[in-house]
Specification:
Layout lengths: L1 E3 L11 E4 L2 E4 L4 H13 L5 E2 L7 H4 L4 H15 L25 H7 L12 H20 L4 E4 L21 H11 L5 E5 L6 H7 L5 E8 L24 E6 L5 H18 L3 E6 L16 H12 L5 E5 L5 H18 L1
Parallel strand pairs: 1-4, 1-5, 5-10, 6-7, 6-9, 7-8, 9-10
Antiparallel strand pairs: 2-3
The chain binds 6-amino-N-hydroxyhexanamide and zinc ion (ZN).
């Protein structure tokens, strides 16, 4: 399987995030991508190519232009204030506060974000656009007839919505790729999110559409991040009603429960008649993940890959979460190898 990879991911290296009430070193580190790349090479999964630049247009097919401009300019405006440390918001526009877009960068940080764990740094824009190009280059290969590709995307993307960042995500790589597949003639595209956390950003982007089916298996938002989206009764709106499926599972759910949910999701994708599949591949479902609470073990990721291959669809994998850095390479490549072995 082809891998698309850019060393520009290294430009996103936040120092700290506010999690569980304290500032901690970021879990979303460059070493995650290093470990995955090493495993790709060690297991001889296939060729590794650099992404082609695609510019802003494909990004603006799913993201708000003002939000993109904020991401592009935030660091310069923040550092012009004499601040040489990561940019993080200090409050959010919650119920009954004005939904006004502030002029100042500090206020825009609050308006265009959903949490305090997604630091904007000097290299954030470059890293995020390189990740989008990585996903788009993978999509190009599917459009060109390849059966599958792996976009080693960092920073991840599935929490990034039309006009806000969060969960370590700035641009929604999987959504950008799904839209590109649609723009290049694939009539129906499914996005399956198997990360531990609900893909609120991807849901937000496609919620009112029937040409892109979104499905997510994740920790129950009643107790798990992102808390405020990912419930089973969210089925889409308007044209999109019936084209959104959430499978929230209680924290601590066993592996067999997880695979029952997967089979339900795969069945919906087959019923939809998808012509291509984009997988938001988070491996924080791993039993040893430091911030998540499912039980998958490394061999289960081989099974996951094989189940996905059973759909017989052109498939693009986009890396999302996974913070057990030691085994992340094994777990990611197990999915990809399991997919390939199924044929
Ligand atoms: N800082 C709070 C937890 C962010 C979750 C990030 C993630 O793995 N999303 O898939
Ligand atoms: Zn996650």
């Amino acid at each position: 399987m082809l891998t698309v990879y850019s060393d520009s991911h290294r430009l996103q290296h936040g120092q700290s995030e506010l999690i569980d009430g304290t500032l901690k070193p970021c879990f979303e580190t460059p070493s995650r991508a290093d470990m995955v790349l090493a495993a790709i090479r060690e297991r001889e999964l296939g060729d590794i190519i650099h992404p082609r630049r695609h510019g802003l247009d494909p990004i603006l097919r799913v993201h708000d232009a003002d939000y993109a401009r904020f991401l592009e300019t935030a660091w310069q405006r923040w550092s012009d204030m004499g601040r040489d440390y990561d940019a993080l918001p200090k409050m959010w526009q919650v119920r009954r506060l004005r939904e006004a877009i502030p002029d100042h960068v500090e206020g825009q940080l609050c308006y265009y974000s959903m949490d305090c764990g997604t630091p904007i740094t000097a290299g954030t824009w470059a890293a995020a656009t390189a990740a989008a190009d990585t996903a788009l280059t993978g999509a190009d290969r599917l459009i060109g007839g390849e059966r599958a590709a792996f976009a080693l995307t960092r920073p991840p993307g599935h929490h990034a919505a039309f006009d806000y960042c969060g969960g370590y995500c700035f641009l929604n790589n999987a959504a950008i790729a799904a839209q590109a597949l649609r723009d290049h003639g694939m009539r129906k595209v499914a996005v399956l999110d198997v990360d531990y956390h609900h893909g609120n950003g991807t849901q937000d982007i496609f919620y009112r559409r029937s040409d892109v089916l979104f499905l997510s298996i994740h920790g129950d938002p009643r107790t798990e991040y992102p808390f405020f989206l990912g419930f089973a009764d969210e089925k889409g709106e308007g044209e999109g009603l019936g084209y959104n499926f959430n499978f929230p599972l209680p924290a601590g759910s066993c592996v067999s429960t997880w695979f029952v949910a997967l089979d339900c999701a795969l069945d919906q994708i087959a019923r939809f008649g998808a012509e291509a599949l984009v997988v938001s591949l988070g491996v924080d479902t791993y039993r040893g993940d430091p911030i998540s609470r499912f039980q998958l073990d490394s061999p289960d990721f081989v099974t996951l890959g094989a189940r996905l291959a059973g759909l017989k669809l052109p498939t693009l994998f986009c890396l999302e979460g996974g913070y057990a850095v030691g085994p992340i390479g094994t777990n990611v490549v197990n999915v990809l190898a399991g997919f390939e072995a199924r044929g």
